[in-house]
Design goal:
- The chain has one domain (7-250): Rossmann fold (3-Layer(aba) Sandwich), CATH 3.40.50.150.
- It has 9 helices and 7 strands, in the order αααβαβββαβααβααβ.
- It has helices spanning 7-20, 32-35, 39-48, 64-71, 133-143, 162-169, 182-192, 215-218, 221-237, and strands at residues 54-58, 75-80, 94-98, 114-120, 144-156, 194-202, 244-251.
- It has a 7-stranded mixed β-sheet, sandwiched between helices.
- Helix 5 crosses helix 7 (182-192).
């Protein structure tokens, strides 16, 4: 089993976001417990990125993941229907391209432009703007170089326990109307011409909802360590019920 990214590393990203004012613009960075939802994302990403690569943060939104990539000195293009994230406007390694919501699946890049494309909680939402997972992945495959990788995170697990319970209790803000299984992901990749190299589940407990908890709880270092330990334990014991999937797909040569 691969070694988990040290908690101290993620906390260093959180502390930097506080010092630089990024936290004010990124809801997910409101507290360390919520930011730690990306621990697996960062861990896997660091295995693949190298300086000199051209990387696309597809659906970059508020820029939270592009911010992480820039901290690693990675040349990053952020693509979104939204406006440029204000805290990344003057970053020399960040290039923003605004998409056309009337053509949701179209990417304004030549064939074989990027070494890696990332999707962080985006692919499952494309239908909301008139697109589809399949048409979006066809475009992503087109702009990737032969043999390059698509890394997808925060892809909702069909059998997760958080949203069903949250709906019953009225505690969850947002619900995913589309959720997926391992088989769904494999079939989707096969139709597009991607080879799945790795797939996994992570984040057993909810994260974004924790920002509503008292500061003494969500900022407490002992609570932080205990929460992460329990999340890791339950993720290993009951992976079928974790919130998210991630998968790594390579363009077939």
């Amino acid at each position: 089993m691969l070694q988990q990214l040290p908690l101290s590393t993620v906390l260093s990203y959180f502390n930097e976001s506080q010092r630089t004012g990024v936290q004010e613009h990124v809801l997910q960075f409101e507290n360390p417990l919520t930011m730690l939802q990306y621990r697996k994302t960062y861990e896997v990403t660091l295995r693949f990125i190298k300086q000199g690569m051209k990387v696309l943060d597809w659906g970059c939104g508020n820029g939270h993941f592009s911010y992480f990539l820039n901290r690693q000195k990675i040349d990053t293009t952020g693509f979104s229907f939204d406006t440029v994230p204000i805290f990344l406007e003057n970053e020399p390694l960040f290039h923003f391209v605004q998409g056309d919501a009337h053509e949701p699946a179209t990417l304004p890049f030549p064939d074989s432009t990027f070494d890696i494309v990332f999707s962080i909680g985006v692919l499952e939402h494309v239908y909301e703007t008139g697109g589809s997972e399949e048409s979006s992945l066809q475009e992503i495959r087109r702009v990737l170089k032969s043999g390059s990788h698509f890394l997808c995170f925060h892809f909702p697990n069909k059998f997760q326990w958080v949203e069903p319970l949250g709906k019953i209790l009225g505690l969850t803000e947002h619900f995913h109307h589309r959720k997926y299984t391992h088989k769904n992901i494999q079939q989707l990749a096969d139709r597009i011409g991607f080879q799945i190299e790795e797939i996994g589940r992570y984040n057993f407990f909810p994260r974004n909802q924790l920002r509503f908890l008292p500061s003494w709880f969500k900022q407490n270092i002992l609570v932080l360590h205990l929460f992460e330990f329990m999340d890791g334990l339950f993720s290993r014991l009951l992976p079928w019920f974790c919130t998210n999937y991630y998968f790594i797909a390579q363009v077939k040569k």
